[in-house]
Design a protein that fits this description.
By secondary structure, the chain is α/β, with parallel strands linked by helices. Helix content is 51%, strand content 17%. Strands 1-2-4-3 form a four-stranded mixed sheet. The chain is globular, with a radius of gyration of 15 Å.
């Protein structure tokens, strides 16, 4: 299993979404030559996401996704390369505002987080283009249209 999902109290997701989240992580890790690696996903509410965003990024607001690389020596033994937090509430609202399917947007946010964990970012236009292209191509493999 390449994705370990935990849900905060009061949060639930459909089994089909759980399977699709697993699938996108497996696809990305396979494509990147990291098939034996694991990632933790914690699905939270906006209140918890706001706490995490404040604690780790000094921003006093919720956000859609946060990624944390595991650069600890334990990753050699556990094969766990990082943690991702996604705010279910934030992603639901964002999907509605942007006219996207909730599940597709949730999967995109997870893919975005996974690419951060494996070293991609969007700090400048060139890096952003590379990361976005990777996201577009991997999402296309599971029939999700270009989210940008």
């Amino acid at each position: 299993m390449s994705l370990i999902i935990t849900l905060d109290k009061g949060i639930s997701i459909e089994p089909d979404l759980r399977d699709r989240l697993q699938s996108i992580v497996s696809l990305i890790l396979n494509d990147e030559g990291l098939a034996d690696k694991k990632i933790n996903l914690r699905i939270v509410n906006n209140k918890e996401m706001k706490k995490l965003n404040h604690q780790f990024r000094n921003k006093n607001s919720a956000t859609n996704v946060l990624s944390f690389q595991n650069d600890d020596i334990s990753s050699i033994h556990t094969k766990n390369i990082g943690d991702i937090a996604i705010s279910l509430e934030y992603v639901e609202r964002e999907a509605k505002e942007e006219g996207k399917f909730f599940e597709d947007h949730m999967i995109h946010m997870l893919a975005h987080g996974v690419y951060h964990i494996i070293g991609y970012d969007h700090e400048n236009d060139e890096m952003a283009a590379i990361m976005e292209n990777k996201e577009i191509n991997i999402l296309n493999k599971i029939n999700i249209n270009n989210p940008y």
